[in-house]
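Let us work through a complete example step by step.
Step 1: write down the sequence.
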Amino acid sequence: MPDALHVAKTGLNAQQQRMTVISNNLANVNTVGFKRDRANFETLLYQNFRDSGSQTSQSTTSPTGLAIGTGVRIVSSEKLYNQGNIINTDNSLDMTVDGPGFFQVLTPGGQVAYTRAGNFTKNAQGQVVTANGYPLEPAINIPANATSISISKDGIVSVSTPGSTKLDQVGQVELATFPNTAGLKPIGESFALATPSSGDPTVGAPGSNGAGKLIQGALESSNVNVVEELVSMIETQRAYEVNSKAISAVDGMMKFLTQNI
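Step 2: predict the structure and record it as tokens.
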């Protein structure tokens, strides 16, 4: 009986963690560039009481074994990097990646972080930065007298200035791609860091080395499907209730034994 209680308890813990993953997805449904997480489960160790093929007599063997599972756990939460919807904003410093690739941002700690959120702006010095003031890498500076900003599909940033009849190039947006994007480590603020599992980044102009092209004046919305998440939430709730009923049933069986034996 205590074994059944333990197994049901692992089910409660796993479903509660899955509900946390789903809740985080729903909470970020309007977060620019957010990628939904998926909880992956695996079984815990099995107790093998009899192996398949074991001798049942001198001339016969067992066609099946006897193995009882000890529960379940969440083995990983995987980021799903499928493309979100592209929303036009007409803001000249808003950018989205149509295809694979990440913007590079220099964090205050000196690390290069990677993001799909392209809602950039400029600071008092004219440098292109994130909403939190972290500079885009490589750095791009917009002149104070610029009257318009143009960003090409391959990441070339040009501006027009008074008295000039042509566009002046002021920088180049570069994108990073990874062999295994699911191996990136999310750290919050819509950023992720490279890990040994993700592999080393390949950095280049948009449209090269397998990277997508840039679209100016647009943002990539979250790839969370609200209906899908709500269905997963109901499924998780039902699974949690079933595991709770299993604990209640085992408790009733133990109470019966205590009162009648």
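Step 3: interpret the result. The longest helix spans residues 226-260.
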